[in-house]
Amino acid sequence: MVQKFQSPVRVYKYPFELVMMAYEKRFPKCPQMPIVLDCEIVKDEILENGAQRKTSRRCKLAVDAPYIFKKLIGVEHVYFIQHNYLDLANRTLNIEAVNESFSSRIEIFERCRYYAHPDNPDWTCFDQTATLDIKNFFGFEHSMEKMGMKQYTQTTLKGKEIIEYFINELKEEGITEVPRWQPPADAPLSPKTRVEGEENGEGENATEVTNGVSGEKRPSSHDILLDGDFIAKHLGQLTPMQESKLLELRKLLDTPGEEVEKMPDYQTILRFLRARDWHVSQALAMLKDSLKWRKEQDIDSLLKEYKMPTVVSDHFPGGWHHNDKDGRPIYILRLGHMDVKGLLKSIGTEGFLKLALHICEEGIQKIKESAENLGKPVLDWCLLVDLEGLSMRHLWRPGVKALLNIIENVERNYPETMGRVLVVRAPRVFPIAWTIVSAFIDENTRSKFLFYGITDDEHTKESLEQYIDAEIVPDFLGGPCKPLLAPLSYVDQITPYYFTHCYLANCDCTLIHEGSLVPKNLYKMNSLEEGDDEALDNHHESSQNSAAATASATATAAAAAGGSLAQQNLHHNVYKTVELRTGYSHEVIIRNSDPKSVLTWDFDVLRSDLHFTLFRVTKELPEKHDLAVSFFDMSDFTEGVNYFKEEPTLVCHNKESVQGSHVMNHKDNYVMHWFSPSCGAEGPAQLNYFYEVLSSANYKGSMTSLQSAFSSNSASSSCQSR
């Protein structure tokens, strides 16, 4: 197994000659590196009239390993050979080190370089690479690999500290400046004064290499200057191993034959590395695919050339709104207020995707602006999703397909740009939508979701204030940031729809539309998928067809998501229809054997009002065939003793649709109960209903986080989506 390590460039803000004097003071040993027991010079040559010096040392190192490990391999210390090549004329020092001990079983090769900063000759740069090749080490290959990584990390962290220590020691001795080397006046230089290893294309004055274009110089390694100050200011806290991976990927993008036309910045490279768990080869493939996609789709010009369709500016309920407490730009999306169907029928799937990509590009731009304004690393943005109004109607099949298409494109091309997702006012139907969508979201991204259910505004406000300053919480979420409800006609003299706008001084946040239905005269197509939504268009004209279409949409989306949810929704004709005369009841029994499973329902009421209640029964239920008699009218049923009202009674009016869900915590019988108090002139009430039990396994990591917001016995939990 071969491990490669590479450090970013470290910058000492001292001249090369002073750094070299400090470097020599660390031999034969120094207190900051107790692992180095001794260093003996075995060869020392001065060449080119003093311009070059070649020094070889044999260094004795303590074995930094557990006692039992040292006993097993039979050694307390090991030896390394270090070769230094100092070129004072070109102001470079190249260091190579290899292991002498166990060289037949393990090969360690380290190369370090000190050189004058390419842009500031009074500063000195340092970089370091190492390889560890473990062939056979008494069965402890994995342990040796871990120790090698640990040792590399320690030496990388200590290196700069040691040089700084000895420079300060020199200052105490009164040495703050060392003159540059000058050749003797009467001694000519050799015609070749170069850096060791330069024949391999390395070193400061390496021969020019072209990118296949005559005379075009390919950037040398010095053009890739990733120093500690840059990392701290722009990338945040990284471990030495992460820094090594970052630099490795950056250099791979600059390798002959692998060059990219436009080199991405370090922040972008870092995001792709994190998205692939620091696997360089996987991150390289993902990043190159994304760069190719950006070129093919001309994404770089999207911010400049994208013209937002009028229907989007009039009806899309989203916009940017200040920064969170970590400096992340906040995007607010009032998803529950979005007319998904109307927008899709107006701008199409491609238009919807382009809108999403434009938001992502805006996000990248705002991330950079925030980092610059705050003077600290900001690498992602925050999404605040308001789900008030979300219902099963949002699971319209073309809408779900468009959403999954957006997720797929964003996951591939904008990884790790979403730092936090705050989902507020999540209704009871949300677990169904989350089950379908979450299967397509990267696991690391899913971990950034925080859910808050339908509770009072004050509770929502308190929850948000953990992440957002109190003064910028929007008033529709209980905060003091009062929106200006201004007719759109005040903005650009178009029809009077309403926007929210922040009253804070010097606020430049985008106007956020409250959301509204898109007029059908703006539709550019009759149907995105012929036949998929026809019943939904005529919901009130044919409730039964509407129910079937909703089932079809849900089933298709679930089938795309895979898993048990898809298996339970393969049939379109899952909606049942019953008629209830005055005083009649309809009851559906669910025998639950899976605690924490979720019961979901969707039903339509026509002609007359119905009362809906969910009960839990702890005794066996008898067979019943008479709609005029309810289980709970029987003498041996007593509320609070052998049956319990799990959901408060909900009055459902004529032509209403109701969706909801309930976590079934007990291995009991659950009864969905509809009652017809009276019938109108149109005849008996008509009920079209569908229900489903979703396995508790579907909600690991999703429903668990919702439990604090949804209490099965609280009034807030009984809220239905209509």
Automatic annotation (TrEMBL):
The gene is LOC101894395. This is Protein real-time isoform X1. Residues 203-212 have a biased composition (Low complexity). Coiled coil: none annotated. Residues 308-485 form the CRAL-TRIO domain. Residues 3-175 form the PRELI/MSF1 domain. Residues 180-218 are annotated as: Disordered. PANTHER family: PROTEIN REAL-TIME, SEC14 RELATED PROTEIN.
